[in-house]
Each structure stands twice: as structure tokens, then as C-alpha cells.
## 1
Amino acid sequence: MRKSYHAAHIYMILGLISGLYYREFTKAHHFDGDTQLAVIHTHLLALGMLGFLIVLALDKQFQLSGTKLFTSFFWFYNVGIAITVVMMFVHGTETVLGSKVPEAVPWIAGLGHTLLTVGLVLLFILLGQRLNESTRTEPTESEPAKTTA
């Protein structure tokens, strides 16, 4: 669970820094057009911070961490966010500077999105397993739940 907490905290910090970078960098270069720098802030806060806070709550409820699937989800998802955000940073910075965006940037960003998708699929597989396990251990209507005195 600590991994999710630390990841959420790091993404919160990066999200705030990226918003500051966008504002100050575009102001310093007198840029007022559209740039991908404008959405890095929200990507880091939504996919990173909020995503991992949700995972933290799910982990508390369903004991997700400590499994191979969780570890795989964690790394695929984080690498996916990192690649996606770095490519947004490169694309946005090149746009503000008036430079040509390298052709590889969208392809690499697509790889980041693919890794994010793999991570989310792994998370849902793990959640599905945990939900199936919890329904097998819950008492049925014909079996009353045991109470302790």
C-alpha cells in the first residue's frame, strides 16, 4: 500500500511543478497558442495522483499489493505515464520554441498509452480475481454469518 501512497504523492508534486512550468515557460516565450504543456498538469494529477489514491483505497479493501499482478500493474502503469508525459513535455516544449516536433514523438507517446492500457488491464484482472475470492468466502443466505460475543 505504501507504494501507491508514495506514487500518488510524487505525481501530485510533479503535477504541480508541470503546471508551474507551463505557465512560466509560455510566459517567458510570449506564447499564447495551444501546446501539450497545458495538459501535462491534468494528466499527472488525474492519471497519477488520483489514480493511485483510488488504487490505494482498493488495495486497502481487497489486499491487492504484494502480488505479482499488482507489481506488474504498478510498473506498466508508471512507465506508461512516464513515457506519455515525457513525450507531451517534448512536444509541448518544441511547440513553444517554434521547433519542428520530431516524428518519433507521437509514436513513442503511443507506446506510453499502450503500456498504460496494459497496466489497467492487469489491475482489472487482479480486481476481478479478488472480487471472485470475496464472493466465495461470503456467507450465503442459507448460511447465517457467524457472530462473536
## 2
Amino acid sequence: MTVPETESLRAPARPRRQRAWRTQAPVVAVVAAGGALGATARYALSLGWPAQQGGFPWATFWTNVVGCAVIGVFMVVITEVWAAHRLVRPFFGTGVLGGFTTFSTYAVDIQRLVDAGHPRTALAYLAATPVAALTAVWLAAAAARRILKWRQS
């Protein structure tokens, strides 16, 4: 037999796309499951604390701020303390917290406030949410690092 003939007897190599899907399927599954949990928790909060017509959307605001603070602590823990399983970060960080925080609802809330004739409230909300969310991430991460350093000493 010649070399080309022996190569044709080998099993065909799996396509790269199929191998990539096998490694990514668990990640997609845990993100979806986590997202369902986070979105359900956010929805429950919105039912329990509905926004008043034309009023500041406090439930969405605090959902985003608290979610961002948790993200700050979580990222410190899984990057500096705990060697988490490869699916923990996509499940909790991207899935649960991504589903819980809701910057799409934030954008819709701003549009509703403007449409209802409350541009000042919309502008205050537009500015306050990213400032508070970024501050929450930074403060929570800094506090987590400080607590971890204090516990180690």
C-alpha cells in the first residue's frame, strides 16, 4: 500500500466545529441556567417593589447596584482566593449576576420617563445608575481585598 492509501483507512478527523461545541456546550448550559435564576430573582424584586408612574425606578437601580457589588466581591474571591471550577464563573458571574442586573431595563426605564414627561428624573437616573454601579464594584472589591488581607494577618 502506498501512503495515500493508508491515510484513507484512518477514521476521519472530527471537524473543529464539533470539538469546539463539545467544550462550549457546558458553558452555554450553565450561563443559561444561571441567567434564568438571576432573571427570576430580578423579576420577583420588580413585582415586590414596582416603580411608580414617573417616579425614580428604585428597584432597578438597587438591583443593578447590589448586583455590581456582588460581582466585585465574586471576582476578587475567584481570582485571588479560590481556584474555582471552570464553570463557576460563567454560571454565577455571567449567568446569575448577568441575569440579575438589568441594564436593558435601565434603558427602557429612561425612555419611559422621558416619554411620560419626566426628563429630569430620567437624566438623574441615567447618570446615577452607572456611577453607583461602578462605585459599588470598586468599593466591594476593595473591601473584599481588605477583609482577606486582614484575615491573613
## 3
Amino acid sequence: MTGGPTGTGAGRATSREYAARVLAALEKAGGTLAVAESLTGGLVAAELTSVPGASRTFRGSVTAYATAVKRDVLGVDGVLLEERGAVDPEVARQMAAGARRVLGAGWGAATTGVAGPDPQDGQPVGTVYVAVAGPEGAGKVTALRLNGDRADIRKESVRSVLALLLSELSWNGRAQDTEQNGGN
């Protein structure tokens, strides 16, 4: 996905709107959420907790800025981190799963990437991976190639992970409705 965080455009939700929708979907489904953040440094958690009533579904977050925290707290594979670095789709997936496990939530979301000003782990500025892990193995990783300065990249990463999470929650909810209605 290529994106430019230069405004919301017509029909494009803001991070705050996505956060409110995510929390409402989780509450409706009786779900909970945990977040693991690297490049966003707590911005996803801040956006979620800015929504009144977030405590009903949001369990907490781990700001895993250091590679050792990704490994030691979230359980990201150490060999993977050594071989590929922290900016990797599988690292993002494992971070989301680790947040779920460590914080006891039904859903996990994660961000990892390069906000700049310099490249990291051989990856250019603007390379970001956002991931979602859910119950029963549900999950997804999205690669982003973002433009803009450090603040723009971080802001768009927050919006993107919340949008991915809402998409996965919506898909999961539709699948459950289909099962409950006999596949109709």
C-alpha cells in the first residue's frame, strides 16, 4: 500500500473515528484489545484511550521500541530479529500475537517500521508493517510505503493499523453472523 498522509480526503476516516469504531465493534462482540507499538511509540494506545469508555474493551499496550523488548516481552523470535531486523512483516505478526498473549486480550494489533529520519535494518524511511492477530488464528499483516516526515509517517501508521483492525473485526463479525444464521 502506498499512502501519503497529507489530509484525510473525502470519505476517509480519521484515526479518532477508526478508534471509536474499533472500540464499538469490540464492545458489541464482547471482545478485548491489546496493542504492541514500535515506531508509533504509544500513539495507537493514546488514540484508543481518547475515546470515552475505552476501558470496557482496551486492555493495554506495550511500547516495544527496543528490539530486546520485542523479543523478551512480546516473544518475537530472536533469530528472526537477528536475521531480518525489527522492520519485517513476520515481526509485526508476532508482536500482535505477543500483545494478545501478554495482556490477555482476544485481539492484538501491532506497528513496526521506519519513521525516519534515517533508514533502519536496510529498510527505507516510510516502510511500515501493521498487523492484527485475533481469536482462532484470525490475523493479517499489511505492508505500507508511506511518504512525509516522521510525524506524518507515525500518524498514518496509527490510522492504518486501526483501519486494518476494524476491517478484521468487521470480517470476523460477518463470518460469525453467517455461522449463526446457518450459512445464509
